[in-house]
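User: Round two. Same drill as before: sequence, then structure, for each protein.

Assistant: Same drill it is. First protein:
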Amino acid sequence: MLDSVRADVRRMTAQETSLASKVGLFFFHPGLQAVLFYRLARWLLLHHLGPLAVVTSYVSSVLTGAQISPRAAIGKGLRIYHPHGVVIGAGAIVGDHCTLSHGNMIGTFAGDEERPVIGYHFSAATGAKILGKITVGDYVRVSPNSVVITSLPDNVVATGVPARILLREQPESAAATPGTEKPAVDTVDRLVSLLRRNVEAVPVPASMDASTGLLGEGIGLDSVEILKLVCAIEDEFGLTIDESELTAARFKTVGSLAGFIQEKSAS
């Protein structure tokens, strides 16, 4: 238990630079409190103190808004940003270093007792639900308000109701991805124009070229914006893009995406 608690606290406070801010977050962050209440309830349950575990879970739900069953098995390094509406049902299995936000549910699909098994480094955005007897792989991200009811492999981004795979993230050591050669200026210009017309949820830079990043520290497209952009690309360039072709490497920059569009157009 203590190893898990240390990992939980360390992960939640890692971005704080001063001791005072770390201490303040420890005592006053409801997400961390929800995790620590769960750890205590789980410890009580495993030591045959079930009634006290139930009371601890109830106190946690009242104070933090999260309902996390002590009968759920959750790995170390759990991070919950906004615990209100977070539900993790009895029997659910969640791996190490996972991240939850507001309104997430990990539980049953049709009122039965079957619940998900989730791997390491899972991340669920606001409102995402993972339901039923399914398996979710490692390094999986689920976009806001999506509902996952089928199993997902490792290294994917899923979105929608029901959720489908939007991006397949490949390791750096993977073979070179098509679409990395220098794209034509015309293709880049048309893609930049599509970005300006279709991306609304995130700010678009006043100046963009082939080197402009699309993910992470670049424009920071989320899964919903990526889906809109893919649909716009298909319309603009007359293409049909298969889900298996949507890899994070192709969306790294404007240039890498334009290069992929050129290859699809030529094939």
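Second protein:
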Amino acid sequence: MLILAFDTATDVATSALVEDGEVLGERVSRAVTLLEDVDALFRQAGARPTDVDALAVGTGPGSFTGTRVGLAVARGLGLSLGVPAAGVSTLDALTAGRDGAYAVIDAKRREVFVTGPRVVRPEDLELDPGTVCVGDGARRYRDVLEARGAEVPPDDSELHVPRARFHAALAGGFEPVGKLVPIYARIPDVDQVA
């Protein structure tokens, strides 16, 4: 099964082409270049979009706009190619990089997204000593988390990136792309004004 996987929920977008568990290609960039990255993956693997059997898409939580970009691309590709998709939590993809890791995604406004999913202030997290925190929120709030006994890998560690290859590995229950649902964990700003 050839799976095209991608996640655009954080500041770093990832995409991968995975066939039967083997990574044929992977890219790391920004959400604005997602379609260019997908095209480059197909060229690199000598594949065509019509070869894709399914999509695995990051559903957040993360940036509202970034999450929407990924879902819009998934819906467009899924409908045009006639393939199903599976939504994968960005938090789950982050923790797949290391057993026992705790995902911490920057939620802006001095808050982070964590398992639940829920949004909290980093200083309110209750962490066991030695908990390995990964993600852009772990990097941003390193001092706060380490003061609470957590361990945060170096800023340039791959563990802080929600790798699309993990989305492909975690994907299951493929269904029509119209059923993909974003994970926001917080009311979008536009809804808070009303």
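The mean pLDDT is 95.

User: Perfect.
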